[in-house]
Each structure stands twice: as structure tokens, then as C-alpha cells.
Batch of 2 targets.
Target 1
Amino acid sequence: MRWICLLALLFLSLPAHAGHSAPKVFLRVHIQTEGSGLPEAQAIRVPIPPNGEPIQIRALAEATERDLIGISQDPGGAVHLQFNHQGQVNISAATAQNEGRILIVMINGVVVYAPIIDEQISTGELVLPRPINPNVLLQLQETARKNVKEEKRT
């Protein structure tokens, strides 16, 4: 019994991060909605930069980190997000049907980009005009690599 207790104590004292991947990063692409006629669970209010004005967005994201297959940063600092077929179709349809509304890109629950939709995005690529935190960029790149590997397996 004493050995079991010692082994349990040793196991519990190991660092929690040993053998685990980096913390998960959350990426969400949403579309502004008026919210009229929608149940409360289907629309949420978020503050958008620069002044924190609240708008309503559809609770269901058009694309998430699960749809991400590539991310890069160009020399000017802009971040390019490439989405798989499903993400591309969803973003294309949403931007075609919601011209004049706001597209919301959130990373880990923070709005990082909120442009007004002025044309359909059919390429499967979103471009964030400003750099993001380097650690978050690395986490998103790792997520994209994992997604590509998963797609190859299926």
C-alpha cells in the first residue's frame, strides 16, 4: 500500500504540461445580425473596436479554428488565414448574403478584426491587416498543421 501511495504522489507531482500540447487557441468568424426574431441563444452581443460599440452577432460561427488550414504573416504584418473547403463555402455564402454588415474575427474571445462586408469573400482567405500576438500566431499555425494532417487521414 505504501508503494502505491508513493507512486501516486510521484505521478501527481509531475508537471501538468508534460506530454501535452500547447493550450488550445480559439478562432471564430461571425456575421453581424439584427437579432430581431432570433431566440436569445442564437445571437450574442460583442463590443467591437475601436470604441467598444456593442453589436449583435450570430452565435453560430461561420468558421472556426477547426476549418483553418494555413496561416502566415506577410512582411507588412498582415495575417493571412486560409480555410478548408467547408470554411471557404461558409464564409463565401455569409459574405455574399450580408453585404453592409460587419464580419467579426475573434481570437480567444477578443475581437481582432471587424470590417464592414463590401464584397463576397470566395477565396477561402481572410486577411487581418494588423499583426497578432506572436504566441497566438504560433498556436494558430500549429492548429492549421494538425488540421491538414487530419484532412489527409480522412
Note: The helical segments are 2-13, 85-97, 134-153.
Target 2
Amino acid sequence: MWRGEAPGDQSASPRGSLTPPPDPVTSDGSPYARFRRALRTGNEHLVIAAARELPQIALDDALRICLVLRTGDPGRYERAAVRWLGRFALEARDVTIDDLCLAADALDALPDRAQEAMERLQRLCLARGVA
């Protein structure tokens, strides 16, 4: 879940990003395979278009979308980050108010300090069963 470099981010460490692992050798035309390929491009328009084809988006994939959107339109990123935070509150295991504050702070830092923010989000997600 947390391997590779962040799309378009030269400063992210290998363990601090949400870039999905490469697709298998065979080319799959499924919506999820297209979504994963779009994430690897780091192109927010491709990511959004591919995400719209999915019947639902897992919480970890929603965070990957935030990672891509962080360098684009600030309003779009803000909306995606707030949606992710709300889903985290509802879907993660035993979330506390402190967890939500930590997640909100990390999401706020993500556009400017991606590596640090992703490491904080990774620790939080792992602690709360988001995989």
C-alpha cells in the first residue's frame, strides 16, 4: 500500500507514498487497473476520470487521490481532503478525536510537506486498520 514514489513528487521517500504497486504483466482493461495506471501518471484529470468509473473507492485509494490532487487546484484538494477525513472518521477502527486532529493536520500539511505528512498519515492509517 505504501510503496514507490508519490506521483510527481521527487522528495517523497519510498516508504512514505501511496503509489500503488505496478499492474501485473498482463494488460487489464478493468476500471480499477485504469485507475491504478492513472495514479502512477500523477495527472489529476486522468485520476479523476478513472475514479469516476469505479463503483466505489477504498479509503486508501481516496488518500492516493488526495496525494495527486495536492499540487493542483487548492479548492479541489480541500474538498477531497475533507471527504477523506469524514470517511476516515466513519470507516477506520476506533478513531478518536485526537486521531481526527492528527489526520486533519497532516492533510493540511500535505501540499507543502508531502513526505512528512504522508509518514504521519501512514502511521495513523496503519494504527486504525486502513489498508
Note: The radius of gyration is 14 Å.
